[in-house]
């Protein structure tokens, strides 16, 4: 079946407005403002927090360096006292013989004062407990407070820390040993000052003045609060620390430490995933390095409270800012939304929409411009409708004038043929029915008539044709009674039946039946004119359909009448209505008219013509 009317599919009925969801301006502005506010407040809070954090770290590091300096002063005092005592013992040993040294250190009466009395007097002055160890080349061994055992002397001489003492240590020079354990002095670690001298008899004597590591610890124990303190020698070996497991270990790589942090400064280091504030102070006199590690989390714990409140304040600021922005955006977008709704009404054809939006100067200007535009469009549309109506009326009248002469020519030609053949009785009968049909057609002034009135005209025309072809052709109706009052175009069936007779039944021997069937479905009225004539091949049907589409019909191919019917239907009802043709060779031809049903006809007020604008606004 080939359809020759209008546009059947939705795509063919014209472009529709894009119905894809669009993001509202209000949503975009609110999202943009919220993004800017959140980013600005977050950036400001982040900057303030980190600035305060860095300032706090710098001030804490500066104060901890002061603490390290104070600890260094205390340790310097201990070392100075040890050096003074070491020199005292060296002087006593240098000025004494071997026997006098033994008597002196063993508390015998050869001397006016024993070593025990000297140490007691000195320790009472400095309030620190020192230990002294004396060794000489003849095997003399003394450990205060007076225990001398050969096994102890042998253990000391074999100890690694003792073997590391420089052999060329000059008289009066003091060497500081690494922290070590010494069973002769008791449990724990000791830090010793070593000096060597020669007595009056030429024997080499080694004087060890030792102090327990706990006295070093006492110089900084009061500043321990979750932090770790280190006193380190130039080799990176820990001399004292509140972490007892690290004492005497070569814990620090001094080259790497020098790259990380210099004296009087700090750095942030990370160990086992935990960050620490590492402060350093170098003691230039005795070459010791003082280090302190403070867990950064502990240091910044006081900022947690500030951070929490900063987040709360930032959140409140963001919410208040968004609320203020929301109100401002609403004052801008609400009038625009109202304008959009009014413009939609205008686009829907309501040209009585009142534009009365008052807001910002720019929006008021848009409102006034829209009102002016609506008035101009309304005037243009009214003029256009009137112009189109006049054009349609003129074209319909032209088509009607074209159909009537075409039909009259065919009928009068047939009457002439009957007269020439001498069949005056049939010619007279045909002329009477022709005159009756003309009287009926001319008496109908309206373009739209009822289906029943159209069938009367059709029956009168068919009676005229029976005068020519006889009773061999028949016209049959299959029409529900309730559809007889439906409105149809006047003189719309005659051209279709005429084509069925001339091109379908006449070539078949002037015999056959024409069926006129009417039904209504889905708001449309269908009128089928079907014959059982010779029909057409598909190629011939396609050729006729192309001629009808191009409006190139001729009287010989019978397309003038049906082409006029199609154009009249489209002009009256729109491009979605029209005619379709189906034909099969030796079976017959079916012509289907598609017209508006009852709902469509009720929407077309009496005396009005159907507008034939395309859905995309064209004509």
SSE inventory with pairings:
Blueprint: E1 2-3, H1 25-94, H2 98-106, H3 115-126, E2 130-136, E3 141-143, H4 150-158, H5 160-163, E4 175-176, E5 180-182, E6 186-198, E7 204-212, H6 213-217, E8 228-232, E9 238-241, H7 254-260, E10 266-271, E11 274-282, E12 289-295, H8 296-299, H9 301-347, H10 361-420, H11 424-443, E13 448-450, H12 451-469, E14 473-478, E15 487-489, H13 494-505, E16 512-521, E17 524-531, H14 538-549, H15 559-573, E18 578-584, E19 588-596, H16 598-603
Parallel strand pairs: 14-16
Antiparallel strand pairs: 1-18, 2-3, 2-7, 4-6, 5-6, 6-7, 8-9, 8-12, 10-11, 11-12, 13-15, 16-17, 17-19, 18-19
Helix pairs in contact: 1-9, 9-10, 10-11, 10-15, 11-12, 14-15
